[in-house]
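BUG-393 | component: ligand-complex export | severity: low

The export step for fe (iii) ion jobs runs without errors, but we want the raw record kept on the ticket for reference. Input record follows.
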Amino acid sequence: MKVWRNARLATLSPRLPGLGVIEDGAVAADGERIVYAGPVADAPAGEVIDCEGRWITPGLIDCHTHLVYAGDRAHEFELRLQGATYEEIARAGGGIASTVTATRAASEAELTALARPRLEALIAEGATTVEVKSGYGLTTGDELKQLRAARALGDRASIATTFLGAHALPPEYAGNPDGYIDLVCEAMIPAVAEAGLADAVDAFCEGIGFTPAQTERVFQAARRHGLAVKLHAEQLSNLEGAALAARYGALSADHLEHLDEAGAAAMAQAGTTAVLLPGAYYFLRDETAPPIGALRAAGVPMAVATDSNPGTSPLTSLLLAMNMAATLFRLTVDECLAGVTRNAARALGRQDQVGTLEAGKVCDLAIWDVERPAELVYRMGFNPLHARVWRGN
Ligand code: DI6
Ligand code: FE
């Protein structure tokens, strides 16, 4: 038994108000499970780790990333600064297509190696669970390769993998998106399910992605194979993707800049979590923020994630994502912290395992050198992590 004592806890327990604060707190773990999180007076005995008054939060959860890819898009960033648009770059063979070409050319081991420093950046700020999407392979073999490369990162953090075959139209299917969706539904999803390589299925429902009808076919195939769904919805326009996702009981709908009240109500009804991605909003200099007031009013749980990807959010900091969510979207400190812990766990369907400091959960902790939790959201580019505990170690 290990006991972290002399700590202040932000438990994020839903049974307590706000951050679920316990001022004179202790956490005890037997192996990888929390057996106690509460007032130090009632803590069990064991090997003591003195936290010297520091704050403990649940280990952070990044519930939306595209961490595994090859190639570099820094040059496109320079072109954009010189006035080129995202569309012009894409037409010249850059953009997402360039990442697909590079990812197809890379081996599984190379993809894992390329993703490691990105994952380590998240870990250095206390991340213990990270979701990773495919979607840069766009052939059955290359998508499986990307998912296996992601699973190989599981030696450093708990990894949730999401199959995102319906991310972009690969060049060999130009002019035939329905033919590509046939491939996604009839070959890729069965292969991914058979190999047990995905925890969920996602799609990019957008003018430059796939239509709601195509998205629905992907959801139906996922359902046939017993896979949960989530959706990139309402990022650039309102195609009512969030409501569609809610009809399929989606774990989450993500981005949501152009969500309307009916979409928020549908999400609330279905228990679908809203995943906010302020890094993409910032990097694309978007001007329409997600309707936070409508999400709050409807009672939709909100998560915050990095969307780490080479094209629209080259971000590997959940601390900065929280700062952006507060500054750009006006989330409160409590909402930001719930967004990278309890509600991020919900977005992955892992709320019974992680995301709060409660007996029975996995002992994933972030121990912080701060005087108050607001500092985790307030500072920019400063990392106050003292220690990270993953699965009790
Ligand atoms: N939405 C996005 O903004 C990114 N993917 C997605 O579904 C774009 C990814 C890229 O440009 O590489
Ligand atoms: Fe994304």
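Assignee comment: Attached the raw record above. Residues 64, 66, 232, 307, 309 surround fe (iii) ion (ligand 2) (CB under 6 Å).
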